[in-house]
C-alpha cells in the first residue's frame, strides 16, 4: 500500500516539473535556442571525430554552422537593435560572439582542420552545461543526479578548459601559416585569422586568450635568452616576438574579469 502511495505522489510531482521546464523554455526562448545550437555543435564535433553517422567531411561544416548560429543568436541577444553607424560597428567588434561568428566563417570555406573545432566544442560544452543545470532545477533539485555530477565536473574544470581554449586560439595562427605550404588553406586565411586573434586579445569579457598570449611570449623570451639556443632559432623567436608585439593590448585590459555569459 505504501509503494502505491509513493508512486502516486511522484507522478504529479514529475508532471509539475515538466510543466515548470516547459514554462521556463517558453520564457527564455533565446537561451533555449542557444542551448540547442550548442548541443548540435557538440554532437557534430563528436560525430566528426568518431564518424558514426554520415560523412565526416559534411559533419565538420555542420559543427561550424551550428556554432555560427549560436554566435549570431547570442549577438542578437547582446545587441538586439541593429544600427548603421560607426558606434554600433565598434560595439559589435567588442562582442565575443561577433569574434566567433567571424571565426566560424573563416574556416567554413577551407578544408577540414580538426583543431579548429576544439575551442567551439569546449565553449559550447561549458555554456551547455550551465543552462542544463538550470533546466534540471526546473524538474527538481534531486532529479537526474548522474547528469548533475557530469555538469559539476565540467564546471569544476572550467578554468582549465578556458585556458585550453585560449591556447587553441593562439596556436591556430602559426598552424594556418604552416597549412599554406600544404595547400590546405589560402594566403588570406592566416591574415584574416590574425585580425580575429587581435579581437580576442582585446576582449573585454574574456581575458584568458590575452593572459595565455603573454605567458607564451614570456616563455619564448626566456628561451631566446638561453646561451644554449642556436642563433638561427633565437632569431626566429625574436622575429616572432617582434611581430606579435603590436598585437598586445594596453595594460588597462589586465583589470578585466571573465564573464561566463559569452561565446
From TrEMBL:
GO cellular component: endoplasmic reticulum; membrane
Keywords: Membrane, Transmembrane, Transmembrane helix
GO biological process: endoplasmic reticulum tubular network organization; membrane organization
Species lineage: Eukaryota, Metazoa, Ecdysozoa, Arthropoda, Hexapoda
Origin superkingdom: Eukaryota
InterPro entries (UniProt xref): PER33/POM33_regulator, TMEM33/Pom33
Protein name: Protein Kr-h2
Xref: PANTHER family: TRANSMEMBRANE PROTEIN 33 (PTHR12703:SF4)
Family membership: Belongs to the PER33/POM33 family.
Residue stretches in coiled coil: none
Keyword Membrane on entry: yes
Subcellular location: Membrane
Amino acid at each position: 500500500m505504501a509503494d502505491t502511495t509513493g508512486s502516486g505522489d511522484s507522478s504529479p510531482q514529475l508532471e509539475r516539473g515538466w510543466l515548470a521546464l516547459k514554462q521556463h523554455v517558453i520564457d527564455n526562448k533565446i537561451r533555449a535556442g542557444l542551448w540547442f545550437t550548442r548541443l548540435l555543435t557538440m554532437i557534430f564535433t563528436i560525430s566528426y571525430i568518431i564518424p558514426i553517422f554520415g560523412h565526416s567531411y559534411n559533419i565538420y561544416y555542420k559543427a561550424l554552422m551550428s556554432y555560427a548560429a549560436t554566435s549570431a543568436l547570442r549577438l542578437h541577444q547582446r545587441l538586439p537593435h541593429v544600427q548603421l553607424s560607426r558606434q554600433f560597428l565598434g560595439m559589435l567588434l567588442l562582442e565575443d560572439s561577433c569574434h566567433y561568428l567571424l571565426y566560424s566563417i573563416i574556416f567554413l570555406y577551407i578544408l577540414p582542420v580538426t583543431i579548429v573545432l576544439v575551442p567551439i566544442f569546449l565553449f559550447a560544452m561549458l555554456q551547455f552545461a550551465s543552462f542544463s543545470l538550470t533546466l534540471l532545477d526546473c524538474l527538481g533539485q534531486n532529479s537526474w543526479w548522474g547528469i548533475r555530477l557530469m555538469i559539476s565536473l565540467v564546471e569544476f574544470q572550467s578554468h582549465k578548459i578556458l585556458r585550453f581554449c585560449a591556447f587553441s586560439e593562439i596556436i591556430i595562427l602559426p598552424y594556418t601559416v604552416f597549412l599554406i605550404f600544404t595547400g590546405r588553406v589560402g594566403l588570406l586565411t592566416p591574415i584574416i585569422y590574425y585580425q580575429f586573434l587581435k579581437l580576442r586579445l582585446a576582449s573585454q569579457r574574456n581575458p584568458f586568450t590575452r593572459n595565455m598570449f603573454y605567458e607564451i611570449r614570456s616563455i619564448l623570451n626566456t628561451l631566446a635568452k638561453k646561451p644554449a639556443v642556436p642563433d638561427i632559432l633565437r632569431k626566429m623567436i625574436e622575429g616572432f616576438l617582434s611581430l606579435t608585439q603590436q598585437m598586445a593590448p594596453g595594460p588597462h585590459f589586465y583589470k578585466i574579469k571573465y564573464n561566463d555569459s559569452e561565446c
